[in-house]
Design a protein that fits this description.
By secondary structure, this protein is of the alpha/beta class. The chain has helices at 13-24, 38-48, 75-84, 99-111, 126-129, 158-174, 248-251, 262-276, 289-303, 311-330, and strands at residues 4-9, 28-34, 51-53, 65-68, 88-92, 116-119, 140-146, 178-186, 195-202, 207-213, 220-227, 230-235, 240-246, 277-282. The N and C termini lie far apart (74 Å).
């Protein structure tokens, strides 16, 4: 496969990671690093051994693809320019700031026969990858994603920053239409929500309960998935998964709990997850998720197949995230509709003057 002539646009935290991995990838020929900040672009260009340019339009005739890691507010404008110039695009999440903008990009990519991939990198996490194909007829999902405050991505709240990862994963697993969203959020560090909790109800009856925080003293990235035939615990941080499968005797209701002898009770208590609820620890190969994302992008362009996370998938995750934000804005913290609402849990000003 010929290396894909590529530029990385944006040299923030994720942009630098993309640039470093792209420079090391055999399927990518990193042509240029693009950023309006001269010091930043030259530093990353020196680290990766490629050219530094201030404007992506300078390299449009030299590249086949671009990785866009600018702040979200610039995604629509930059990606639209690139797609309009015949360039395949991998854009970081969220795809855009609005669904309308996302719809425009998805249609433009389709019209021009180009790949548009969205950087929902957890889809390439080995912990999810090793069990995703076995998760069918999902009934309930519980996800938690928490971190400390990084002082990055302050232009968006925790729903677009963190929760949208789990929204995308849930949509890819449940494969049903969201029919109801209930949510609340709390702003801590600024005007945007830093803690959020959402419940998604799907047309097929499935429920997803998602919690996200970026002001947590302890990190967490996990998801528990319940189906009629088992339970799966995905550890995104540890990049592993655990499955628990009831035996056929339990699934067919032939196990008579009330007829067990004292000795049998003692035995099954000690061997529950070996003989009745059979537990299996999955230890997948520890691949780098962003590197796998790059490989998928390049292979899809060269072979013509779909990327794993399409522009449409990114658009759908954004649409549900917008519903979560709408539900947060409508949430009342007091009995009175004139009381506190939205992410502002505490009053903005003192209730009375001190002294």
């Amino acid at each position: 496969m010929l290396p894909l002539r590529t530029a990385v646009i944006g040299t923030g935290h994720l942009g630098r990671i993309h640039a470093r991995l792209a420079a090391e990838a055999p399927h990518i020929d990193l042509v240029a690093i693009v950023d309006v900040n001269q010091e930043a672009r030259e530093r990353v260009a020196e680290e990766t051994g490629c050219r530094a340019v201030a404007d992506y339009r300078e390299v449009l005739g030299e590249i086949e693809a671009a990785i866009v890691a600018t702040p979200t507010i610039y995604h629509h404008h930059v990606v639209k320019d690139l797609l309009g110039s015949g360039i395949h695009v991998l854009v970081e999440k969220p795809i855009t700031t609005t669904v309308e903008e996302a719809d425009e990009l998805v249609e433009l990519a389709k019209t021009n026969g180009l790949k548009l991939q969205v950087g929902h990198v957890e889809r390439f996490n080995p912990g999810l990858d090793c069990v995703a194909d076995d998760l069918a007829d999902i009934r309930f999902i519980q996800g938690i994603r928490a971190s400390g405050f990084t002082f990055r991505s302050t232009d968006i709240g925790v729903v677009m920053d963190l929760m949208i990862h789990d929204i995308d994963i849930v949509l890819s697993l449940v494969k049903s239409r969201v029919v109801h969203v209930d949510a609340f959020g709390v702003a801590v560090m600024g005007d945007s929500e830093d803690i959020a909790q959402a419940q998604l109800r799907f047309a097929n009856g499935a429920i997803a309960q998602l919690t996200a925080s970026r002001v947590n003293y302890q990190g967490a990235r996990s998801m528990q998935v319940f189906t009629p035939t088992g339970f799966t615990d995905i550890d995104f941080a540890g990049r592993s998964a655990t499955t628990v499968r009831p035996t056929a005797e339990l699934l067919t209701r032939q196990f008579d709990l009330n007829s067990l002898t004292t000795d049998q009770v003692a035995h099954y208590r000690d061997h529950l997850f070996e003989e009745l609820l059979v537990k299996k620890q999955h230890e997948p190969s520890q691949t780098n998720a962003i590197a796998e994302e790059h490989r998928d992008f390049a292979e899809a362009i060269r072979t013509g197949r779909d990327v794993r996370v399409t522009g449409q998938a990114g658009r759908n995750a954004l649409a549900v995230a917008e519903q979560v934000l709408e539900a947060i804005d409508k949430h009342l913290w007091d009995a009175s509709p004139l009381g506190r609402r939205g992410a502002q849990l505490t009053p903005a000003v003192p209730l009375r003057k001190a002294g």
